[in-house]
Amino acid sequence: MTDPKTLAERFPGDFLFGVATAAFQIEGASKADGRKPSIWDAFSNMPGRVFGRHNGDVACDHYNRLDDDLDLIAALGVSAYRFSIAWPRVIPEGIGPVNEKGLDFYDRLVDGLKARGIRAFATLYHWDLPLALAGDGGWTARSTAYAFQRYAKTAIARLGDRLDAVATFNEPWCSVWLSHLYGIHAPGERNMDAALHALHVTNLAHGLGVAAIRAERPSLPVGLVLNAHQIYPGSETAADRAAADRAFDFHNGAFFGPAFGGAYPESFMQALGDRMPAIEPGDMETISQTLDWWGLNYYTPMRVAADPAEGAEFPATVPAPPVVDVRTDIGWEVHPPALGDLIRRLNADYTLPDCYITENGACYNMDVEGGAVDDQPRLDYIADHLDVTADLIAEGYPMRGYFAWSLMDNFEWAEGYRMRFGIVHVDYETQVRTVKKSGHWYRQLASRFPKGNHTYDAA
Ligand code: IFM
After folding, report:
1. What is the per-residue pLDDT for 286?
2. What's the pLDDT band for 1 if we cut at 50, 70, 90?
3. Residue 236 appears among annotated catalytic residues
Protein backbone atom coordinates (compact mmCIF):
# COMPACT_ATOMS: atom_id res chain seq x y z
CA MET A 1 0.00 0.00 0.00
CA THR A 2 1.84 3.13 -1.12
CA ASP A 3 -0.86 5.77 -1.27
CA PRO A 4 0.01 7.98 1.73
CA LYS A 5 -3.59 8.96 2.35
CA THR A 6 -4.80 5.37 2.44
CA LEU A 7 -1.89 4.31 4.61
CA ALA A 8 -2.50 7.23 6.98
CA GLU A 9 -6.03 5.97 7.58
CA ARG A 10 -4.57 2.88 9.20
CA PHE A 11 -2.88 4.83 12.02
CA PRO A 12 -4.36 6.50 15.10
CA GLY A 13 -4.30 10.28 15.07
CA ASP A 14 -1.62 10.58 17.73
CA PHE A 15 0.78 8.15 16.06
CA LEU A 16 4.17 9.81 15.89
CA PHE A 17 5.97 9.99 12.56
CA GLY A 18 9.59 11.03 12.82
CA VAL A 19 13.06 10.83 11.37
CA ALA A 20 16.22 9.65 13.12
CA THR A 21 19.96 10.31 13.09
CA ALA A 22 22.96 9.85 15.38
CA ALA A 23 25.62 12.35 16.39
CA PHE A 24 28.76 10.72 15.02
CA GLN A 25 27.08 9.90 11.72
CA ILE A 26 26.07 13.46 10.85
CA GLU A 27 27.65 16.13 13.04
CA GLY A 28 31.24 16.40 11.81
CA ALA A 29 33.09 19.29 13.52
CA SER A 30 34.99 16.62 15.36
CA LYS A 31 37.37 19.06 17.03
CA ALA A 32 35.03 22.02 17.49
CA ASP A 33 34.24 23.73 20.77
CA GLY A 34 36.11 21.37 23.03
CA ARG A 35 34.98 18.01 21.62
CA LYS A 36 37.62 15.32 22.05
CA PRO A 37 37.94 12.04 20.13
CA SER A 38 35.64 9.09 20.55
CA ILE A 39 36.55 5.47 19.91
CA TRP A 40 35.07 5.91 16.41
CA ASP A 41 37.45 8.78 15.61
CA ALA A 42 40.33 6.49 16.47
CA PHE A 43 38.89 3.38 14.82
CA SER A 44 37.99 5.09 11.56
CA ASN A 45 41.52 6.40 11.25
CA MET A 46 43.07 2.95 11.60
CA PRO A 47 43.92 1.14 8.38
CA GLY A 48 41.47 -1.52 7.25
CA ARG A 49 38.63 -0.77 9.65
CA VAL A 50 36.29 1.52 7.71
CA PHE A 51 35.68 1.49 3.96
CA GLY A 52 38.02 3.96 2.25
CA ARG A 53 39.25 5.01 5.69
CA HIS A 54 36.31 7.41 5.80
CA ASN A 55 35.87 9.20 9.11
CA GLY A 56 33.52 11.52 10.99
CA ASP A 57 35.58 14.71 10.74
CA VAL A 58 33.08 16.45 8.46
CA ALA A 59 30.26 13.94 7.92
CA CYS A 60 27.12 15.94 6.98
CA ASP A 61 28.52 19.04 8.68
CA HIS A 62 25.33 19.12 10.69
CA TYR A 63 27.07 20.86 13.59
CA ASN A 64 27.56 23.92 11.38
CA ARG A 65 24.27 23.62 9.50
CA LEU A 66 21.97 23.06 12.42
CA ASP A 67 19.30 25.62 11.56
CA ASP A 68 19.07 24.60 7.93
CA ASP A 69 18.80 20.95 8.92
CA LEU A 70 16.07 21.74 11.44
CA ASP A 71 14.20 23.54 8.68
CA LEU A 72 14.65 20.44 6.53
CA ILE A 73 13.19 18.24 9.25
CA ALA A 74 10.24 20.61 9.62
CA ALA A 75 9.74 20.61 5.85
CA LEU A 76 9.41 16.83 5.94
CA GLY A 77 6.24 17.31 7.97
CA VAL A 78 7.30 15.01 10.81
CA SER A 79 6.25 15.55 14.40
CA ALA A 80 9.37 14.05 16.06
CA TYR A 81 13.11 13.96 15.61
CA ARG A 82 15.33 11.30 17.14
CA PHE A 83 18.97 12.33 17.58
CA SER A 84 21.82 11.35 19.82
CA ILE A 85 23.93 13.42 22.17
CA ALA A 86 27.70 13.04 21.79
CA TRP A 87 29.27 12.16 25.13
CA PRO A 88 32.68 13.43 23.84
CA ARG A 89 31.16 16.88 23.35
CA VAL A 90 29.59 17.00 26.79
CA ILE A 91 32.31 15.37 28.92
CA PRO A 92 35.19 15.18 26.44
CA GLU A 93 37.31 12.77 28.45
CA GLY A 94 34.41 10.67 29.66
CA ILE A 95 35.05 11.70 33.23
CA GLY A 96 36.28 15.07 34.47
CA PRO A 97 35.30 18.53 33.28
CA VAL A 98 31.93 19.19 31.67
CA ASN A 99 32.15 21.10 28.38
CA GLU A 100 29.46 23.79 28.44
CA LYS A 101 29.96 24.57 24.76
CA GLY A 102 29.12 21.00 23.88
CA LEU A 103 25.90 21.24 25.86
CA ASP A 104 25.15 24.59 24.20
CA PHE A 105 24.91 22.83 20.83
CA TYR A 106 22.21 20.45 22.09
CA ASP A 107 20.46 23.36 23.80
CA ARG A 108 20.19 25.04 20.40
CA LEU A 109 19.08 21.78 18.79
CA VAL A 110 16.33 21.15 21.32
CA ASP A 111 15.18 24.78 21.33
CA GLY A 112 15.14 24.71 17.53
CA LEU A 113 12.91 21.63 17.58
CA LYS A 114 10.54 23.19 20.10
CA ALA A 115 10.34 26.38 18.04
CA ARG A 116 9.24 24.27 15.07
CA GLY A 117 6.74 22.19 17.07
CA ILE A 118 8.77 19.00 16.74
CA ARG A 119 9.18 16.55 19.59
CA ALA A 120 12.69 15.78 20.79
CA PHE A 121 13.67 12.13 21.28
CA ALA A 122 17.24 12.02 22.55
CA THR A 123 19.56 9.04 22.80
CA LEU A 124 22.43 9.31 25.24
CA TYR A 125 24.71 6.68 23.75
CA HIS A 126 24.94 5.90 20.05
CA TRP A 127 28.42 4.34 20.10
CA ASP A 128 30.74 7.37 20.44
CA LEU A 129 32.48 6.46 23.69
CA PRO A 130 35.04 9.11 24.71
CA LEU A 131 38.38 7.67 23.65
CA ALA A 132 39.99 8.52 27.00
CA LEU A 133 37.80 5.84 28.61
CA ALA A 134 39.26 3.19 26.33
CA GLY A 135 42.44 3.44 28.37
CA ASP A 136 40.54 2.07 31.35
CA GLY A 137 39.03 -0.74 29.30
CA GLY A 138 36.08 1.08 27.72
CA TRP A 139 32.89 -0.92 28.00
CA THR A 140 34.72 -3.89 29.49
CA ALA A 141 35.45 -1.86 32.65
CA ARG A 142 32.78 -1.48 35.32
CA SER A 143 33.98 2.08 35.95
CA THR A 144 32.59 3.05 32.51
CA ALA A 145 29.06 2.34 33.76
CA TYR A 146 29.52 4.90 36.53
CA ALA A 147 31.05 7.38 34.09
CA PHE A 148 27.93 6.93 31.92
CA GLN A 149 25.70 7.52 34.94
CA ARG A 150 27.34 10.90 35.53
CA TYR A 151 27.14 11.81 31.85
CA ALA A 152 23.41 10.91 31.84
CA LYS A 153 22.82 13.09 34.87
CA THR A 154 24.75 15.98 33.33
CA ALA A 155 22.95 15.83 29.99
CA ILE A 156 19.49 15.54 31.53
CA ALA A 157 20.11 18.29 34.08
CA ARG A 158 20.74 20.66 31.18
CA LEU A 159 18.35 19.41 28.50
CA GLY A 160 15.74 17.26 30.23
CA ASP A 161 13.21 20.06 30.70
CA ARG A 162 12.67 20.26 26.92
CA LEU A 163 13.01 16.61 25.91
CA ASP A 164 9.93 14.55 25.12
CA ALA A 165 11.68 11.21 25.61
CA VAL A 166 15.15 9.89 26.26
CA ALA A 167 16.80 6.53 25.57
CA THR A 168 19.87 5.42 27.45
CA PHE A 169 21.43 3.25 24.72
CA ASN A 170 21.03 2.69 21.03
CA GLU A 171 21.44 -0.94 19.95
CA PRO A 172 23.67 -2.34 22.68
CA TRP A 173 23.83 -5.50 20.51
CA CYS A 174 26.16 -3.49 18.26
CA SER A 175 28.28 -1.85 20.96
CA VAL A 176 28.61 -5.25 22.68
CA TRP A 177 28.66 -8.16 20.18
CA LEU A 178 29.50 -6.34 16.96
CA SER A 179 32.20 -4.29 18.68
CA HIS A 180 33.78 -6.78 21.09
CA LEU A 181 33.01 -10.22 19.65
CA TYR A 182 32.75 -9.82 15.88
CA GLY A 183 35.32 -7.01 15.60
CA ILE A 184 33.37 -5.01 13.00
CA HIS A 185 32.69 -1.87 15.06
CA ALA A 186 34.94 0.11 17.40
CA PRO A 187 36.95 -0.92 19.31
CA GLY A 188 37.21 -3.91 16.98
CA GLU A 189 37.79 -6.68 19.52
CA ARG A 190 37.11 -10.34 18.75
CA ASN A 191 36.98 -11.86 22.16
CA MET A 192 34.07 -13.53 23.93
CA ASP A 193 35.39 -12.72 27.41
CA ALA A 194 35.73 -9.04 26.57
CA ALA A 195 32.27 -9.11 24.99
CA LEU A 196 30.69 -10.66 28.09
CA HIS A 197 32.23 -7.94 30.23
CA ALA A 198 30.96 -5.28 27.81
CA LEU A 199 27.52 -6.90 27.95
CA HIS A 200 27.11 -6.69 31.69
CA VAL A 201 28.76 -3.27 32.02
CA THR A 202 26.49 -1.89 29.28
CA ASN A 203 23.37 -3.36 30.87
CA LEU A 204 24.44 -1.95 34.22
CA ALA A 205 25.14 1.46 32.66
CA HIS A 206 21.64 1.42 31.20
CA GLY A 207 20.17 0.82 34.67
CA LEU A 208 22.36 3.42 36.35
CA GLY A 209 21.43 5.82 33.57
CA VAL A 210 17.71 5.25 34.11
CA ALA A 211 18.13 6.04 37.80
CA ALA A 212 20.18 9.17 37.05
CA ILE A 213 17.63 10.44 34.53
CA ARG A 214 14.72 9.84 36.89
CA ALA A 215 16.53 11.52 39.77
CA GLU A 216 16.97 14.64 37.62
CA ARG A 217 13.61 14.63 35.87
CA PRO A 218 11.07 12.11 37.11
CA SER A 219 8.46 12.99 34.48
CA LEU A 220 10.71 12.43 31.45
CA PRO A 221 9.77 9.16 29.65
CA VAL A 222 12.83 6.89 29.69
CA GLY A 223 13.44 4.02 27.32
CA LEU A 224 15.97 1.70 25.74
CA VAL A 225 16.47 1.16 22.01
CA LEU A 226 17.20 -2.43 20.95
CA ASN A 227 17.87 -3.88 17.53
CA ALA A 228 16.04 -7.07 18.34
CA HIS A 229 16.44 -9.86 15.81
CA GLN A 230 13.66 -11.94 14.34
CA ILE A 231 15.41 -15.28 14.12
CA TYR A 232 14.18 -18.01 11.80
CA PRO A 233 15.60 -21.54 11.73
CA GLY A 234 17.27 -22.39 8.43
CA SER A 235 15.16 -25.56 8.27
CA GLU A 236 12.50 -27.33 10.31
CA THR A 237 14.98 -29.88 11.69
CA ALA A 238 15.19 -30.14 15.48
CA ALA A 239 18.84 -29.11 15.31
CA ASP A 240 18.13 -25.89 13.43
CA ARG A 241 15.16 -25.04 15.62
CA ALA A 242 17.29 -25.50 18.72
CA ALA A 243 19.93 -23.30 17.06
CA ALA A 244 17.32 -20.58 16.52
CA ASP A 245 16.34 -20.77 20.21
CA ARG A 246 19.97 -20.41 21.29
CA ALA A 247 20.42 -17.52 18.88
CA PHE A 248 17.33 -15.82 20.31
CA ASP A 249 18.77 -16.06 23.82
CA PHE A 250 22.14 -14.77 22.70
CA HIS A 251 21.10 -11.94 20.38
CA ASN A 252 17.90 -10.83 22.12
CA GLY A 253 17.70 -12.45 25.53
CA ALA A 254 21.05 -11.12 26.74
CA PHE A 255 19.51 -7.61 26.55
CA PHE A 256 15.76 -8.13 26.95
CA GLY A 257 16.18 -10.65 29.78
CA PRO A 258 18.05 -8.30 32.14
CA ALA A 259 16.13 -5.14 31.18
CA PHE A 260 12.62 -6.62 31.18
CA GLY A 261 12.95 -9.66 33.41
CA GLY A 262 15.90 -9.03 35.72
CA ALA A 263 17.87 -12.10 34.58
CA TYR A 264 20.11 -13.36 31.80
CA PRO A 265 18.62 -16.30 29.87
CA GLU A 266 19.23 -19.71 31.43
CA SER A 267 20.80 -21.30 28.36
CA PHE A 268 23.10 -18.32 28.01
CA MET A 269 24.22 -18.53 31.64
CA GLN A 270 24.72 -22.28 31.43
CA ALA A 271 27.00 -21.88 28.46
CA LEU A 272 28.82 -18.66 29.32
CA GLY A 273 28.00 -17.77 32.92
CA ASP A 274 31.40 -18.76 34.28
CA ARG A 275 33.03 -16.26 31.93
CA MET A 276 30.78 -13.34 32.88
CA PRO A 277 32.16 -10.58 35.09
CA ALA A 278 30.98 -10.46 38.69
CA ILE A 279 27.28 -9.64 38.87
CA GLU A 280 27.20 -7.65 42.09
CA PRO A 281 24.28 -7.59 44.52
CA GLY A 282 21.67 -5.14 43.28
CA ASP A 283 22.93 -5.11 39.65
CA MET A 284 19.96 -6.97 38.21
CA GLU A 285 17.48 -4.79 40.11
CA THR A 286 19.24 -1.70 38.79
CA ILE A 287 19.12 -3.02 35.23
CA SER A 288 15.48 -4.07 35.35
CA GLN A 289 13.83 -0.83 36.47
CA THR A 290 10.51 -0.38 34.75
CA LEU A 291 10.78 1.63 31.56
CA ASP A 292 8.25 4.03 30.09
CA TRP A 293 8.87 2.88 26.52
CA TRP A 294 11.19 0.87 24.39
CA GLY A 295 12.46 1.38 20.87
CA LEU A 296 12.81 -1.25 18.18
CA ASN A 297 15.31 -0.77 15.38
CA TYR A 298 14.35 -3.27 12.71
CA TYR A 299 15.83 -3.84 9.25
CA THR A 300 16.15 -7.50 8.36
CA PRO A 301 15.62 -10.97 9.80
CA MET A 302 18.33 -13.39 10.89
CA ARG A 303 18.28 -16.98 9.67
CA VAL A 304 20.43 -19.54 11.41
CA ALA A 305 21.40 -23.20 11.25
CA ALA A 306 23.20 -25.34 13.81
CA ASP A 307 26.98 -24.97 13.61
CA PRO A 308 28.31 -28.40 12.64
CA ALA A 309 31.76 -27.63 14.11
CA GLU A 310 32.63 -29.75 17.14
CA GLY A 311 32.67 -27.67 20.34
CA ALA A 312 31.49 -24.46 18.62
CA GLU A 313 31.07 -21.57 21.05
CA PHE A 314 27.55 -20.60 22.16
CA PRO A 315 25.22 -19.89 20.43
CA ALA A 316 26.84 -22.36 18.01
CA THR A 317 25.02 -21.20 14.89
CA VAL A 318 25.96 -20.42 11.31
CA PRO A 319 24.06 -18.18 8.88
CA ALA A 320 21.36 -19.88 6.82
CA PRO A 321 20.46 -18.47 3.39
CA PRO A 322 17.46 -16.14 2.90
CA VAL A 323 14.30 -17.70 1.53
CA VAL A 324 13.81 -15.01 -1.11
CA ASP A 325 16.68 -13.16 -2.69
CA VAL A 326 15.38 -9.61 -2.29
CA ARG A 327 18.10 -7.49 -0.76
CA THR A 328 18.98 -3.86 -0.29
CA ASP A 329 22.25 -2.43 -1.58
CA ILE A 330 24.00 -3.32 1.68
CA GLY A 331 22.97 -6.94 1.16
CA TRP A 332 20.28 -7.19 3.84
CA GLU A 333 17.29 -9.41 3.10
CA VAL A 334 13.97 -7.55 2.73
CA HIS A 335 11.22 -9.41 4.59
CA PRO A 336 8.59 -7.14 6.18
CA PRO A 337 6.57 -9.95 7.86
CA ALA A 338 9.55 -10.50 10.17
CA LEU A 339 8.75 -7.18 11.85
CA GLY A 340 5.33 -8.52 12.83
CA ASP A 341 6.67 -11.90 13.89
CA LEU A 342 9.28 -10.18 16.04
CA ILE A 343 6.88 -7.87 17.88
CA ARG A 344 4.50 -10.76 18.55
CA ARG A 345 7.28 -13.01 19.89
CA LEU A 346 8.86 -10.32 22.08
CA ASN A 347 5.52 -9.35 23.59
CA ALA A 348 4.78 -13.02 24.27
CA ASP A 349 8.12 -13.51 26.02
CA TYR A 350 8.42 -10.24 27.97
CA THR A 351 6.21 -7.63 29.58
CA LEU A 352 6.97 -4.66 27.40
CA PRO A 353 5.87 -1.03 27.62
CA ASP A 354 4.83 1.20 24.70
CA CYS A 355 6.92 0.65 21.61
CA TYR A 356 8.29 3.10 19.07
CA ILE A 357 9.95 1.83 15.93
CA THR A 358 12.95 4.04 16.48
CA GLU A 359 14.66 2.99 13.24
CA ASN A 360 13.54 1.35 10.05
CA GLY A 361 14.68 2.03 6.54
CA ALA A 362 16.77 0.74 3.70
CA CYS A 363 20.11 1.21 2.03
CA TYR A 364 19.85 2.12 -1.64
CA ASN A 365 22.60 4.12 -3.25
CA MET A 366 20.81 5.95 -6.06
CA ASP A 367 22.32 9.30 -6.91
CA VAL A 368 20.81 12.62 -7.95
CA GLU A 369 19.73 12.69 -11.57
CA GLY A 370 18.22 15.81 -13.03
CA GLY A 371 17.80 17.28 -9.55
CA ALA A 372 15.86 14.28 -8.19
CA VAL A 373 16.57 10.92 -6.59
CA ASP A 374 14.27 8.09 -7.65
CA ASP A 375 14.55 5.65 -4.74
CA GLN A 376 11.30 3.79 -5.25
CA PRO A 377 12.62 0.59 -3.53
CA ARG A 378 13.20 2.58 -0.30
CA LEU A 379 9.71 4.05 -0.54
CA ASP A 380 8.28 0.54 -0.99
CA TYR A 381 10.37 -0.80 1.89
CA ILE A 382 9.10 1.88 4.28
CA ALA A 383 5.51 1.56 3.10
CA ASP A 384 5.55 -2.22 3.49
CA HIS A 385 6.96 -2.03 7.02
CA LEU A 386 4.43 0.63 7.97
CA ASP A 387 1.72 -1.66 6.68
CA VAL A 388 2.93 -4.37 9.05
CA THR A 389 3.06 -1.79 11.86
CA ALA A 390 -0.57 -0.90 11.17
CA ASP A 391 -1.48 -4.60 11.35
CA LEU A 392 0.20 -4.78 14.76
CA ILE A 393 -1.77 -1.78 15.98
CA ALA A 394 -4.97 -3.43 14.77
CA GLU A 395 -4.00 -6.54 16.76
CA GLY A 396 -3.67 -4.39 19.88
CA TYR A 397 0.10 -4.00 20.23
CA PRO A 398 1.09 -0.62 21.70
CA MET A 399 2.98 0.73 18.69
CA ARG A 400 3.20 4.50 19.25
CA GLY A 401 5.47 5.85 16.55
CA TYR A 402 7.82 5.27 13.64
CA PHE A 403 11.12 6.99 12.88
CA ALA A 404 12.54 6.60 9.40
CA TRP A 405 16.25 5.82 9.34
CA SER A 406 17.55 8.11 8.28
CA LEU A 407 16.80 11.79 7.88
CA MET A 408 19.74 11.98 5.48
CA ASP A 409 22.60 9.91 4.07
CA ASN A 410 25.41 9.74 6.59
CA PHE A 411 28.48 7.92 7.90
CA GLU A 412 27.42 4.29 7.82
CA TRP A 413 30.03 3.08 10.33
CA ALA A 414 32.34 0.39 8.89
CA GLU A 415 30.85 1.04 5.44
CA GLY A 416 31.80 4.71 5.51
CA TYR A 417 29.82 7.02 3.22
CA ARG A 418 29.32 4.51 0.43
CA MET A 419 26.10 3.09 1.90
CA ARG A 420 23.14 5.48 1.92
CA PHE A 421 20.08 5.17 4.15
CA GLY A 422 18.72 8.72 3.93
CA ILE A 423 15.33 9.84 2.72
CA VAL A 424 17.32 12.97 1.88
CA HIS A 425 20.41 12.67 -0.33
CA VAL A 426 23.65 14.33 0.78
CA ASP A 427 26.30 15.40 -1.70
CA TYR A 428 29.39 15.13 0.48
CA GLU A 429 31.41 17.48 -1.76
CA THR A 430 28.97 20.37 -1.57
CA GLN A 431 26.81 19.35 1.41
CA VAL A 432 23.74 20.00 -0.75
CA ARG A 433 20.71 18.11 0.54
CA THR A 434 18.15 16.77 -1.97
CA VAL A 435 14.91 15.28 -0.74
CA LYS A 436 14.53 11.87 -2.38
CA LYS A 437 11.31 10.44 -3.80
CA SER A 438 10.90 8.49 -0.54
CA GLY A 439 11.28 11.73 1.44
CA HIS A 440 8.57 13.50 -0.56
CA TRP A 441 6.32 10.50 -0.09
CA TYR A 442 7.08 10.34 3.65
CA ARG A 443 6.16 14.01 3.98
CA GLN A 444 2.77 13.36 2.41
CA LEU A 445 2.17 10.69 5.03
CA ALA A 446 3.80 12.26 8.11
CA SER A 447 2.34 15.71 7.64
CA ARG A 448 -1.17 14.25 8.17
CA PHE A 449 -0.18 13.67 11.81
CA PRO A 450 -1.02 14.40 14.51
CA LYS A 451 -4.65 14.45 13.48
CA GLY A 452 -8.11 13.87 14.84
CA ASN A 453 -7.84 12.36 18.27
CA HIS A 454 -4.27 13.52 18.92
CA THR A 455 -3.11 14.45 22.39
CA TYR A 456 0.06 16.37 21.60
CA ASP A 457 0.12 20.12 21.98
CA ALA A 458 3.03 21.45 19.93
CA ALA A 459 3.09 24.65 21.96
O1 IFM B 1 23.30 3.50 10.64
C2 IFM B 1 22.86 2.56 11.56
C3 IFM B 1 22.47 3.20 12.87
O4 IFM B 1 23.52 3.94 13.42
C5 IFM B 1 22.06 2.16 13.87
N6 IFM B 1 21.08 1.26 13.32
C7 IFM B 1 21.33 0.69 12.03
C8 IFM B 1 21.68 1.79 11.03
C9 IFM B 1 21.95 1.17 9.64
O10 IFM B 1 23.01 0.29 9.72
Report:
1. 99
2. low
3. no
Which residues, in sequence order, are bridge partners of residue 34?
A: none
The answer to whether the CB of 216 is under 6 A from ligand 1 is no
Q: Indicate if ligand 1 lies below 6 Å from the C-beta of 359.
A: yes
> Measured between alpha carbons, how far is 44 from 414 in angstroms, rounded to an integer?
8
Dist CA 167 CA 353 (whole Å): 13
H or E element, residue 148: helix 142-159
CATH number for the domain harbouring residue 330: 3.20.20.80
Structural domain range at position 104: 4-446
3-state secondary structure of 130: strand
The identity of residue 25, as a single letter, is Q
pLDDT tens track for 204-255? 999 999 999 999 999 999 999 999 999 999 999 999 999 999 999 999 999 9
Ligand 1 proximity of 199 Cβ (cutoff 6 Å): no
Tell whether 69 is covered by a domain. Answer: yes
DSSP H or E run through 82 = strand 80-84
> From CA 342, how far away is CA 321, in angstroms rounded?
19
Cα–Cα distance, 315 to 237 (Å, whole number): 17
94 vs 179: CA distance, rounded Å: 19
Please report, to the nearest 10 degrees, the dihedral formed by the alpha carbons of residues 311, 314, 315, 316 taken in order: -10
Give residue 360 CA to ligand 1 midpoint distance, Å: 9
Quick one: which of 61, 126, 60, 128 has its CA closest to 91? 128
d(CA 230, CA 446): 27
Is residue 188 assigned to a domain?
yes
137 is a domain residue? yes
Please check whether residue 453 lies inside any domain of the structure.
no
How many domains is the chain partitioned into structurally? Answer: 1
Cα of 21 vs centre of ligand 1, distance in Å, is 9
Give yes or no for residue 456 having a pLDDT over 70.
no
**Residue 79 DSSP one-character state:** S
Q: How far is CA 407 from the centre of its chain?
A: 13
Residue-wise pLDDT tens digits, 156-192: 999 999 999 999 999 999 999 999 999 999 999 999 9
pLDDT category at 323 given cuts 50, 70, 90 is confident
- Write out pLDDT tens, residues 247-291: 999 999 999 999 999 999 999 999 999 999 999 999 999 999 999
CB 128 within 8 A of CB 38: yes
